[in-house]
Specification:
With 628 residues, the chain is of the alpha/beta class. It has three domains: 221 residues, 3-Layer(aba) Sandwich (Rossmann fold); 138 residues, Transcription Regulator spoIIAA (2-Layer Sandwich), CATH 3.30.750; 178 residues, Transcription Regulator spoIIAA (2-Layer Sandwich), CATH 3.30.750.200.
């Protein structure tokens, strides 16, 4: 039975057909390197990922490289593929991905790890690097999870650390050159790749352990490979690749809009935030380039919404100029501007006026903690007055729905900090009704009621952050805090949503894990575990059984605080931020001291060493005196 016949028996067949407008199809006779870009989740999730569009286009610009897409089949398609022995295929050609030269996975969240093994199994590619022969594809991983690649090290031949637009092109060129010279073997290629900047070959590094389970040391197989792998960055985003057109999905996707990457990095330095550290240094695109890219994609796709993508869009130093450039044509074209990740302290009436002339969604802010004391501990650098002022601006513009993101379980947290979450939401509601009474006095129309939605996640100590040494709350403690919040939130105008604490614990295990977790993933795969990121498939009990079967204690990675001088599993990776800087930040957290953001003063994180003249921190570094 062929794939076409299977489509009649599965949900959402558009996930599997390919053939979308904007896809790249090449003559196989002209191709010297075939890359299958695999996203370990469904088509709808993967097609919403900006990284896949950037890397797909950057690779396909090479005339002799062909990059195709592959996504995780849903369980109904999986059943049909196994029943009829149909291997996993790429959308553009329909060829099995086992026939490709390179199979590349993007790893954006830890709960996708089980899907990597699921897809390799469906593709009939040996699961472990050690089991692959000379004719097997090179399996590589990239994305933010590779800043600690150790829990999945056994399954990958190679990791691309950092930004891949230039690095993956360089790797494909190396592959082509070695094949054409006749010098290619798996070992020789991996050895050559390990000497390129930003590539990590885990099989070339042997990890030893102490009796207490901590890491004793790491030994290299070859002297000419680095002791630590430093991430790759793209220094000048204005000249970096960005697609002029993109593939248009046949079915609805999570982010069915133009995604415009405004800048990379974040100046804020929140002590819990991994992205704010690993994406440094800050690099901005110019408003002129961004406006031209947005207009180009609009004309190519007809999308009616543009999402300005960054970690903190209101920190973009040229945001007024950018919105002016965009509104010059988006207003008339009825194209919305979506501004995610807004910061309360930089949300102004001027900004609200600029975006209120087009359709916008509910505004979202992230106080992260309920009291000023705890916000200072985590270095959020935002006050309650700034939060209320941002809400006031939104209410004056006619908004009546605000979403607030919080996290529970931060170091030093006490019940008063939990009380502060509800108290802050009540203050936001009060601000709305004060504003509403003022509107009545000046003759404005009634805006109706107000809705404040609280989204509360559990703290996960992440690698390469000031809190990487901290412990996670015990599961029972997190559940008790969630129950406590549910009981004290009594106002019907406040909607309370919280993340599954069991999911947070498994995420923490794999975020802070080492290579011994590879055995757990392999055992989980044998038991049919996949789609862990989906509520209907996640099973905490199964994971506990798996850990017990392979002799892994999850508390070793969650409720155990790591030693400040301990060798950490991710120390093999250099994200650009110095470990000593993170130690200083941790100490300041326990002293309830804040660190000013990068726009006000340089705290000496070390990321400037990665960048040339185009990176933001090197352009302004001379203006700031380093702290500490």
């Amino acid at each position: 039975m062929n794939v076409g016949q299977l489509l009649k028996s599965v949900s959402k067949p558009g996930r599997y057909t390919g053939g979308e407008w904007g896809q790249t199809v090449k003559n196989k006779a002209d191709v010297r390197c075939r890359v299958a870009f695999c996203f370990p989740d469904t088509y709808e999730i993967g097609m919403s990922n900006l990284g896949i569009r950037l890397l797909y286009g950057a690779l396909n610009r090479e005339p002799d490289v062909w990059c195709e897409r592959c996504f995780a089949p849903w369980t109904d398609m999986e059943a049909q593929m196994r029943r009829h022995s149909i291997p996993l295929w790429a959308l553009e050609s329909g060829d099995p991905i086992s026939q490709f030269d390179i199979v590349a996975f993007t790893l954006g969240y830890e709960l996708a790890y089980s899907n990597v093994l699921y897809m390799l199994d469906l593709a009939k590619i040996p699961l472990t690097s050690a089991a692959r022969g000379e004719d097997a594809p090179i399996v590589i991983g990239g994305g933010c999870c590779t800043y600690n690649p150790e829990p999945i090290a056994d399954f990958f031949d190679l990791f691309s650390i950092g930004e891949g637009e230039e690095a993956l092109v360089e790797l494909s060129r190396l592959y082509i050159e070695m094949k054409e010279r006749g010098t290619y073997t798996r070992e020789a290629f991996l050895h050559a790749a390990a000497r390129l900047d930003g590539f990590y070959v885990p099989s070339f590094y042997t990890v030893s352990y102490n009796e207490d389970g901590t890491i004793r040391g790491v030994a290299k197989k070859y002297e000419d490979i680095p002791d630590r792998i430093t991430k790759r960055i793209v220094q000048d985003l204005d000249t970096a690749y960005f697609p002029k057109e993109t593939f248009m999905p046949y079915i609805d996707t999570v982010q069915d809009r133009i995604m415009l990457e405004v800048y990379r990095g974040c100046p804020r330095g929140c002590r819990f935030c991994q992205a704010g550290m690993v994406y440094r240094p800050i690099r901005e695109k110019s408003p002129e380039v961004l406006a031209a890219q947005a207009k180009c994609l609009y004309e190519a796709t007809g999308y009616e919404e543009i999402s300005l993508s960054s970690l903190s869009i209101s920190d973009y130093t040229r945001l007024p100029a950018l919105t002016e450039e965009l509104l010059a044509w988006t207003d008339d074209a009825r194209v919305s501007l979506a501004l995610p990740s807004l910061r309360a302290d930089t949300f102004t009436k001027e900004l609200m006026e600029r975006i209120s002339s087009v359709r916008t969604s509910t505004l979202t802010f992230a106080p992260e903690a309920g009291t000023q004391r705890l916000r200072d501990v985590i270095n959020k650098n935002v006050t309650e007055e700034e939060i209320l002022n941002a809400c006031r601006v939104a209410f004056e513009a006619g908004k009546n729905q605000v979403k607030l993101y919080f996290m529970i379980g931060h170091p030093t947290e006490v019940n008063e900090d939990l009380d502060g979450i509800f108290a802050l939401s009540e203050h936001v509601i009060h601000e709305f009704y004060v504003n509403k009474r003022h509107d009545k006095q000046i003759g404005k129309p009634n805006k109706g009621g107000v809705q404040v939605t609280l989204s509360v996640a559990a703290f996960v100590p992440k690698p390469h952050t000031a809190f990487q040494w901290e412990k996670q709350d015990a599961l029972s403690t997190t559940l008790e805090k969630q129950r406590y919040l549910r009981e004290i939130i009594t106002d019907r105008k406040v909607r309370y949503n919280y993340h599954d604490a069991q999911v947070g614990r498994i995420e923490c295990v794999f975020a802070r894990g080492d290579r011994r977790l590879c055995a757990a993933l392999l055992e989980a795969h044998r038991r049919g575990v996949h789609f862990d990121a989906w509520e209907e498939f996640f099973s905490y009990e199964t994971w506990l059984e798996v850990f017990d079967a392979v002799g892994v204690d999850p508390d070793f990675y969650t409720t155990r605080g790591f030693g400040l001088d301990e060798i950490l599993p991710w120390d093999i990776i250099d994200c650009g931020v110095d470990k000593e800087f993170l130690r200083r930040e941790r100490a300041k957290a326990y002293e309830t001291k804040t660190t000013r953001n990068c726009m006000e003063a340089c705290a000496g994180c070390g990321a400037d060493k990665l960048g040339g003249e185009q990176t933001w921190c090197n352009r302004v570094l001379c203006k700031h005196k380093k702290e500490g």
